[in-house]
Write a structure and sequence with these properties.
Blueprint (H helix, E strand, L loop, with lengths): L1 H23 L14 E8 L6 E8 L5 E8 L4 E3 L1 E5 L8 E4 L3 E3 L5 E5 L18 E6 L5 E6 L2
Antiparallel strand pairs: 1-2, 1-10, 2-3, 3-8, 4-7, 5-6, 5-9, 9-10
Bound molecules: copper (II) ion.
Length: about 150
Amino acid sequence: MRTKWLLIGIGLLVGVAAIVAVACGDDDGNGGDGGGARELTATLSEMEGSGVTGTAVLTEDDDGTTRVVVSMEGLSEGPHANHIHHVTCDAQGEVHLTLEELQAGADGRAEATTTDFPEEDPDRELNYFAAGHYIAVHDTAGAVISCGNIE
Ligand SMILES: [Cu+2]
């Protein structure tokens, strides 16, 4: 009988230790600045086997608006539209903002930086994009060939 209770006690201790370990590992990586996020990222994955992948980094510009740098590879040569959309890649919401066009060279790579958020856009601060937005890159027909949620 004593052995049984001892085993239950050890089991409880191991369980509590596991919960504490998980809780302490929950670091969102945004740093301890106490304000909002200072950098957001999106990892863009290929859609429909396009082979197009990349990253987007959103940071706060000096004037308080958002700077968006999109870097892609695997693109067909030429221009590619890309946007910040509402909601998520799975939900495929409407366009919030058209980003600077990506111009892919023969190597399929392209990078575009957007800094000029329109004055009339009330939602141009970095924190606005911290939840519920994604970046989509399109082919010339408008189909989404790469997508990543901003987080
Ligand atoms: Cu789009």
